[in-house]
Batch of 2 targets.
Target 1
Amino acid sequence: MDTFVVEGLEGKKRLSGEIQIGGMKNAVLPLMAAAFVVEGETKLSNVPDIADVHSMARLLEGLGAFVSRSGDKASIRTSEANGTVLEPKLAKSLRASVLLLGSVLARNGKVTFAHPGGCVLGSRPIDVFIDGFQKLGATVHEDDAETYTLTAPNGLSGGEIFFRVMSVTGTEALMIAATRAKGIVTLKNCAMEPEVVAVAEFLKSCGARIEGAGTPTIVIHPSHLEPPQESFRVIPDRIEAASFLILGALAAESLTLTHTEPADFEAVIETLRGMGASIAVSGTSVTVSAPETLLPASVRTHEYPGFPTDAQAPMCVLLTQAEGESSILETVFDGRLNYTSELVRMGADIHVWNPHRAVIKGKTPLKARDIDGPDIRAGLAFILAATIAEGTSRIGNAHLIDRGYAGIEHKLRGVGVQIERHTA
Ligand code: EPU
């Protein structure tokens, strides 16, 4: 179990330099799942070297696919992939395993999987997936309390699905499956995240006929799929960019993020500007400087293009440094404020009124602590908090941070953060 050891800057704004943003975790995972629905070899580029990509590769291999990596390139060969069972331990450890349900069911007529499981973000049900596949003609069998089998031996049919909640992976999994349905599939109340659009673009490059990705209604027509000759480039990670932008607003003289798509995280850029941070956007680069005084803000997480829930925990660290009263309203998940108790241990003044609402009073200096991050984004938030704190912090559960941030210690050291990885 690795730990990050971070020497705090005691509030000094001294970080400077450039960080290159990598390919997006939440885009590459559905793209790998989409590759499974297409028979042949799919090539991807700008693939981040993160633990979740390795887990998804192992899941695909368990289904009979061959996955190879070289630098930021990946090749996924699926011609002989006839598997129908998602390896239970892996599937349970990776919520994104649900992305494979549509691919495997639509391609091989059957999929057996373990419920992706309890997660620190609160209850994460799968009803959207089950209802959706049933509407396309699949039969659901509950094998035991935590294992399900979906079957559609004669293929999926066309149909109309209205998503009860806007679900990112739900939209992606159903869109992927629909490319092999026998009739037209209309998806309503779809998630509109850039990663949904990226998956649609990939499927279109394979010959799929998809209209409306990026809007609430997506229509998928039956078509023949073949992988494109050229490799498909994974979009830049808007959450990695947002996380480091927040770091810049906390502690940078001048920090430039390169290889980004600034339009994908405008909600974060505008919120930070409202708090007084100076942010300059130029093409695919964004430069941020921390202001003398940070103003408070009310942050409400929301589906895209609103403020992303995945940037909520890092944002909370920034709000502890704002002069006055700020608030967070978490509208997407019901267990995503639990990490705040650790920030309170560091000296923050945060009152959690209910699982969705926190009030933060600032500015409070933070003191170094030894903390275990509960999930990817809260772990990252603790690194940010440790960076501005007084003293040396140890952030445990580094493997969770590695699930979503490639080589974080190298990227952060490059701009002046004193961070080391210790392997026990
Ligand atoms: N929901 C249901 N039923 C379902 C599915 C979802 O009620 O069957 C609810 C969820 O409980 C939640 C809401 O719908 O309250 C939205 O969840 P969504 O399904 O959109 O989340 P997800 O697809 O499981 C993806 C990202 C998350 C990110 C959310 C929200 C991937 C692999 N994961 O999860 O990323 O927080 O969308 O944007 O794309 C992360 O990267 O750290 C992360 C957690």
Note: The pocket of EPU is lined by residues 25-26, 29, 95-96, 124-129, 165, 167-170, 191, 309-310, 332-333, 376-377, 404 (CB under 6 Å).
Target 2
Amino acid sequence: MSTTFPFPVPPLLVDALRSARRLVAFTGAGVSAESGVATFRDAQTGIWARFSPEALATPDAFAADPERVWAWYETRRAGVLATAPNPAHHALAGLAARLPESRLITQNVDDLHERAGSTGVLHLHGSLFAARCFDCARPAPLPPPLAAGAQPDRLAPPRCTACGGPLRPGVVWFGESLPADVWAAAEAATAACDLFLCIGTSALVWPAAELPSLAVRRGARLAVINPAPTPLDRAAGWCLAAPAGQALPALLAAAWPE
Ligand code: OAD
């Protein structure tokens, strides 16, 4: 069932939320859109509409031009630091406080869930706030962030103190595997959940996009929150066609009125 905002929050979804024992919230770039962080696939404003993933988000791209790739990720890190969590991030942190058995799984590489107070977030695609050596994989501290608004075309990556290799951003690039421990925890939480909230993702990137279907196969109910249609809508019990920053607070307020 698809419901367009402003809506009366579907009463059965409110019941499902209130009675959920193990909830999974699964987020994508749309959750950070209202904070001003660009999504990836939205036409014109999406990151991949403006930049080539092949030139910036693969190991080959880094090997070919580390200074360009490092500058781009450092610019993104500074951009995220200049933003703040929005009502969707805060609502998800509030949800975890209500449902201690819940788990938050994100594809986002920003830190806005954490800044809203969420803990134990499973970052499937890594983080802009981590770095490691491209050669020996040893984790390394990041340098001070760029000034807000700085957009250098090129920036030399710092060198690894152990082997001298260039540092790379701690994100998962195309063609790379997800961090195995994070993926295992995400799969386990998904397989065990009774309600799966899929929020602000196009659900096109695998293997992350497999999680909602896994939840449904294991008997969980699925709710999708996204202003645009997604491939998951047919399998969902509820589709809330609304920005996450409006839908999530409305859902929480309906489930737990003050
Ligand atoms: P996408 O850019 O593919 O999808 C963003 C989704 O958010 C779209 O379906 C939008 O309709 C929706 N959206 C936009 N504004 C919204 C709002 N205010 N509230 C709710 N939804 C909104 O981003 P992801 O699905 O996160 O990979 O992309 C998945 C992965 O592809 C990313 O993690 C990234 C990218 O390549 C890596 O970095 C490895």
Note: The CA atoms of residues 50 and 139 lie 30 Å apart.
